[in-house]
Every structure is written in C-alpha cells, then in structure tokens.
Amino acid sequence: MRIALLSYRSLPTCGGQGVYVRHLSRELVALGHHVQVVSGPPYPVLDPGVGLTELPSLDLYGDAEPFRWAKPSELRSVPDLVEFGMMRTGQFSEPLSFSLRAYQALRPRAAGGRPPFDIVHDNQGLGYGLVALRAALRPYRIPVVSTVHHPITVDRRLSLDATSGLRARIGLRRWYSFLPMQARVARTLDGIIIPSESSRRGIIADMGLPSESMHTVPLGVDADIFTPAPAGRVPVPGRIVVVTSADVPLKGLGVLLEALAALRRERPGAHLVCVGKVREGGQAQRQVTELGLVDAVTFRSGVPEPELVDLLRSAEVAVVPSLYEGFSLPAVEELSCGIPLVATTAGALPEVAGPDGEAALLVPPGDPVALAKAIRRLLDDPALRARMGAAGRRRVEERFSWRAASAATAAWYADRIASVGGTPSTPYPGAVWSWVPQPSTGATLPTKVSASATPVTTGVAVTTGGTATVSSAATVTTGGNSTVSTGPTVPTGGPPIAITTAVPTTTVPTGATPSTAALPGSSTPTG
Q1: For residues 176 and 165, what is the distance between their CA atoms, to the nearest angstrom?
Q2: Among 21, 185, 206, 235, which one has the highest count of C-beta atoms within 10 angstroms of its own C-beta?
Q3: Alpha-carbon torsion 237, 279, 333, 399, what sign?
Q4: Whole-prediction pTM value?
Q5: Which tens digit of pLDDT belongs to each residue from 184-235?
Q6: Exposed e or buried b per residue across 412-421, where buried means at least 16 C-beta atoms within 10 angstroms of its C-beta
Q7: How far apart are CA 41 and CA 10, in angstroms?
Q8: Is 193 helix (H, G, I), strand (E, B) or coil?
Q9: Helices assigned H by DSSP within 250-282
Q10: 284-305 burial string, b = 16+ CB within 10 Å, else e?
Q11: Residue 429: how many CB atoms within 10 A of its CB?
C-alpha cells in the first residue's frame, strides 16, 4: 500500500508525536508498504526508506521564538493568515492551519490523474482541511482516517481544575477552542484508530464518536533498543526517573514532586531525573523551589534515544504519575528496560502496566502520599525491584512491539480502503511493493519549487544524479504523453519550498499508472 501519514508537528523525543510517526512508518516500510510522512515543524527523525514531505509553517510556537509576531511579508496564504490570526487571539492554530496546508498539498490536480496514495492517515490533527481533502479524494475511493491517542478534552479539564482566576481560565478555554473542531472532523472520517480501551471510552463520552467507528491497536516499543542494563551494572542509589512529554497538569509532575519532598524526609538520597521540557518560570520550576528540591531534581530535555535508554537504566525506579493517559509510550519503554514501575490507575495505565504488583505498583492518581509510599517500597527492596523489572520486560515482549502494531494497522488500512470501494495498490498481505526505489549509485535528484506558477514540462527520462528546477504545480512529461504531478501549488510570490526526491534511474512509459509517481512534494530516501 501507499500511505500518506500526516503529523502537524513531530517532536522526535519524550513521547512526542514524532516517536509514533517514526516507529510506525519504519515498520510499515519493513512490511513492504510505501510511507510518505507529511509533517509540519518540528520535523520528525525518520528511518531510511521512509519519505518526508515538509510543510513549512510560520512556526509560531517554536522554542526559539514562541508566540512571535509574523512579518507581513510572511503572510502569503490562507493557512498563514489562519495560523497567525488564531495565535494572536490566544488560540492554538496548528491543527487547523496544518490541515489546510495538507489539503493544498495532497488534493487531486486536474491534470495529475489519480493521487499516488491509497490512504491518508492523520495523527490527531483533525483540522477542517481533512474534511475538504476527504471530499476531494472520494471520487478516487481513497479513505482519510486518523489516530486519536486520547481526547484532549481531558487535558483541558485538568488544566482548568488546576487554574484559578477568571482571566486565566478564559485564556485556557480560548487556547483549547480547537477541540469542537476535532470532534466534528473525527465524526466525518472513514475510521479512527485508538491505542486503548480507555481512550475508546473517553472519545465516546467527550467527542461523540460511535464505538464501531474506532479500532484499537496498542502502541509498541523497540525492544531491541530499550533493553535491560547489562549484567553487573548497578543503578544509581535513590535515583527515580520520570519521562513527561509536556509540562501540564495532566502529566502529574506536581504530584510526584510533592511525593519526592515527603520521601526525602526519610531517604535524603532520593532524587529525581525528569526527562522532558518544563516551562521557564512555570509551575514545575516554582514547585521545585518551594519544596526545597533544587538539589534533588534534574530536568533534561531533547534527550536522544541512546542517551534516554542509558538514563532509564541508571534509575532504581521509574514513575508515571499521570492524571490521565490514553496509552503512555514512556511506561512501555521503561518496562522494556526492566525497570520497576510506579504508575497511577488513571486512563489506560492499568492496561499498559498490568495488574498491581506484577510489573508495577499502582496507586490512585493525584495522591502524593500513596505515590511516596510505593516509591519507598521499591527503593527499600532490591529483590522486589528485580522481580518486577523482569516481569515488565516479559510483558513488553509478549504484548507490545512496533512490528505487531504496524501489521495490525496495515490490516486495518486494507479494511478501510475496501470500505470505500478502493483497492490497495498491491495485494494485502503480499510482497514488497515494486515501486519502492532500489539502492542506486546516482545522487539524489534535488527539485526546488520556485514561486512562479508557470508550468514546465520535459520530454526526457528522469534519472538520478541530475538537478532540475521546476515551478509550483509543474508537470513533468516522461517517456511520452503521461503526466505526473510533482508538487503542491504555491501561490505566486509565495516562499520557495525545497524538495528532494530520490528516484531510481528509469523511464516512465506512456500511459503509466499513478503508482509510478511519488507523493506530491515528496522526499523519498532510497534506504
């Protein structure tokens, strides 16, 4: 199958969306499918064989200059105006603005024939552009589906519970104003994939989706990378680790800090390493100071995967203090490393961690006393830590792998394609799709889309190792009178989009089918 995998932002660390996109795409390619990731910034780290189409945005929420004022010269399209206007009124604009850019990039072109993908899979962007894209793709029998990890209404509810003051609460409601849009869009799509039964219940209650529209596929972990520490390596005494993808009340970091402060009265050597970015001057930093934990808490952000594995192995206990989780990739990664876990009973955590006392000690969410007691119990009992750590590793090997998750997702893709009367481009299950580029000695063919809207055509075969410059919405005629679309439309005066495409040395015959075409604006490594 040919899969367009959409992600409005793809942070590649700490349980971000980029982790899901990277591992799912890699394993789908390993199963013989072609995957083109379409992402806004920050862009994902991808493995060889996975294509990437970058959809540049104004990046108004980037770490370098968050909530910046865009220059008038940057506002060149409707998505730009939407992104900037919503941000300036206190709303989170990326899901909507990305979906509009994705529609512009993936919609069928009048002269382009059938779009070169069999299914579009959105990663919980759920912007209105997907509704337009689904309508445009319907004549081609191409479904549009989405992953919903958990309903973000839970984040809003917990954030409001932790916020006092009318002005701050109004600001939070404005920030989360995209949620009704996500619910409406989800109800129009051709299917929703979810990671847990807890997510299913929340989505039914908060987003109004029928249960039969959802399909559960648990997430996975790379158990060959997240492995237990080598024999003889001793963890750092008293070290506790927590991995959090966001500094928000939902993740329960404040509860863990309270538990740590209580624990240190009896065990002064207990200390916490928090993997994840916290807001400068935010609640977590203030709480560390107020509780006298400045010397006992270390924050690490942007940790590469090898360093993350090494850091997890150095801990005696891992904690997932969340007030809600739709799945929790960090919990699975910690179990895979053979680290005993203390987790709450919130959301899907009991589904992931298993029964209390097997691989994890489970405590009620939001209870620092119970959390401190469970952590103390593990710190005091090396034999219990060893037994639970081994049980956690076994649980991961039996239940959670990206290969199994990707195979189940691909089978669901085939079902969704059939539901709209479509046919995958290769029989499923079947051999490796024949279009996937083979390794070549030639160089990558760089293609730069200029700001001009004048079509350019060529009647020669395209080979690797060359350099060509084509305009937006350009068409390339190869080997006769067949036409292949090479990129999304860019309005005159718009920013140039740099696109690289690796293709095998070949000539496209006259009358070639769209399966010979790369995804519009794609970058496909030969792997």
Answers
A1: 17
A2: 21
A3: positive
A4: 0.76
A5: 999 999 999 999 999 999 999 999 999 999 999 999 999 999 999 998 899 9
A6: bbbebbeebe
A7: 7
A8: strand
A9: 253-263
A10: bbebbeebebeebbebbeebeb
A11: 11
